[in-house]
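User: Some background: our group keeps a shared notebook of sequences we're curious about, and every so often someone picks one and asks for a predicted structure to add to the entry. Today it's my turn. The entry only has the sequence so far, pasted here. Could you supply the structure so I can complete it?
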Amino acid sequence: MVKSGKKSFHTGTVKKTIKINAPKDRVWRKISNIVGLSSWLVDVEKTEYLSKIKKGVGAIRLITFGDGTKIEEHIVAWNKGEYFTYVATEGLPLRAYVATISIKNKTKNSTELTWQSYLNSQKMSEKQFLEFLVFMGSFYEASLENLKILLEK
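Assistant: Of course. Here's the predicted structure to add to the notebook entry:
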């Protein structure tokens, strides 16, 4: 049995998938604009480039949330029209956060989008980490619902 007060490192994953009734290229155009997050990501106040590179590997963005939290993210993998992977380097209570957003055709006019991440915490209790995973899952779901509504207009 784990002592509830003991703080250690924890590892987990979050994965959410949504079907969007929009062509794949339209979905890609929206998600690959890596600073265009305020239209669909929950509680984003602004996103700006920290790099000269705007798309693909090496692009860096700084996301500012409504509560003032700032998260720096670096694009580390990019396959145009298929997926991109990014790592958060600042701003989360984590030692590691790696996420991939990928899309695939379901039909000519519908696309399946999957947002999956791997997380490794800073020192926290197991309960705190599990609550953080639930929060991230809810954040992904709400953001993906926003994206779906926006793209299905």
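Suggested note for the entry: The longest helix spans residues 126-151. The chain has two helices and seven strands.
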